[in-house]
Amino acid sequence: MKYSLIAVILVVLLIASIVYPAFFWNETNQLDFISNIYNVQDSAVSPTSQAYDTVGSENGYYHYDLISIDQSDGLSDDEFLPYISRAHARTEYILDLEFDKLILINVTTTSEFMKTNTTSVDAEPITTIEDGEPDHSAWNDQVWEALFIIGEDQSAESELENTSGQSIAGVYFNEQIVIVNEFDNGLTVIAENVLIHELVHALQDQEGHLDAVDESSPQLTQDTQLAVKGLVEGAAMYVEWYYDQVCEGSISVRNNSLLEEVIWEDWQCVQPPELTIDTSNSEITTPPAPINFGVLIILFHPYSDGATYVDYLKSQDGWDSVHAKYKSPPLSTEQIIHLSEDKPAPLGINFPVEGIPSQNGGVWKSFSNYGIDGADTVGEASIFSMFWHQSREYGAAILNTNNFWDSRNVPPNTFDLKPLPTFNYTSQPSVGWGNDKLLPLYRSEMDQNEYGYIWTTKWDTSTDADEFYDAYSKILDSHQATKVGSSSNNKTTLWVINNGPFEDAFAISTTSKTVTIINAPTTTDVEEILGSFSLSV
Fold first, then answer.
1. Fewer CB within 10 A of the terminal residue: the chain, N end or C end?
2. Would you say the C-alpha torsion 307, 308, 314, 320 has a positive or negative sign?
3. Average pLDDT taken over every residue of the chain
4. What whole-number distance in Å separates Cα of residue 94 and Cα of residue 238?
5. How many Å apart are CA 136 and CA 129, to the nearest integer?
């Protein structure tokens, strides 16, 4: 999947003007929508066996071929086949892999994509299943509320769908590619770099890399999903980065050391026309809902840092190192951010399976059907995004949000030219992450379910833990939280946010390298949860 650079630039402009911005959907289910999509696949382009093709040529077209393309009036039938065939060939040559067949290409508009790919924002966000346990949306709402990114007045599902739907430029699934853009008169316009990005995913699918990832990571937390996407999307972003460097003149493919035995002239690159939107369209009645920037930068992390991670792998043993990694993908965004093989430190929350009786009635229980033993791990990238979002949206004095736009320095490899992270996902209170477990809770046997969570974080050093604690305390301050109590040793403090989307009671409990947060509607609720669990560290 490729996120639109237009959306990213829009975020930059919006945030710059203020001085200083899955989650996780099931991709197969979310994208089962191909009704009402304009199919630009001509009958002459139907996938066929390419028995005589070699790597770097497809359907009679070579990666270095010059072709006549003018997208100012959209791709014509005569232009379409050469255009996509050459893109297939270029993707093959960079990855040294051969397509078995041409991939189906479809084009749709952003508005049509949103209509067919999201549910109504007015839909009931929480339902109840037969055993009385709330559904996944209730569990996921607690995860995003704990990150102070999506409040109680919003549905995480709707926010994720809205943000991802407005930001997608292309997607590959079910052996076909959908290109998403917004040109007047339904023009068939395909950006070549977006097409090549999605063709990488097609080759990943063909070679069994996507299946290998699924088999090696059957249970995924939010953090692991982002890390795996860092590998999968990172390969596509690396290939797209290489293509863009050639087009911009930064790389001469004749002499470029990134590829072996390069003997052809520089590639001809086709730029799409400038985007114009017909505002007279009667179907455009209301603007889309505002994008949640906290959600957006979490979703964008694999695209920002993934190419750098793939370059790090590739520097070890070429593409073989990258392909091998699909069978043992990274487990955390920490590994993607810091180009590390360090695995998360052991950590667990021991909460009674039967739950605990509540003084206010009902029983506090964990969710048995979601997460891993009911818990999620949000990881370093999401924790950074929490602090960044709270600094931007609520003025929490945690970090300078402008630093996000500065690509960070990474260790050099054997190549002089390499992709750098698009954005900087490092900050003092998020670096040093060792692990975290977030256990959403619900109070059953009530007229209406109530919710809370236990979130424990483990840090590499006591200094790292202190920095996280201090930064989290500034989030509470930015929401005018009131400190209402503390333990005799001052290792646990009680807080209350009296109004707003995060209105609740909180306890923060610390040890030398852990910080644990308990959330529930009242301080009484928090105190009874506080005494009901233990940590495995």
1. C
2. negative
3. 82
4. 10
5. 10
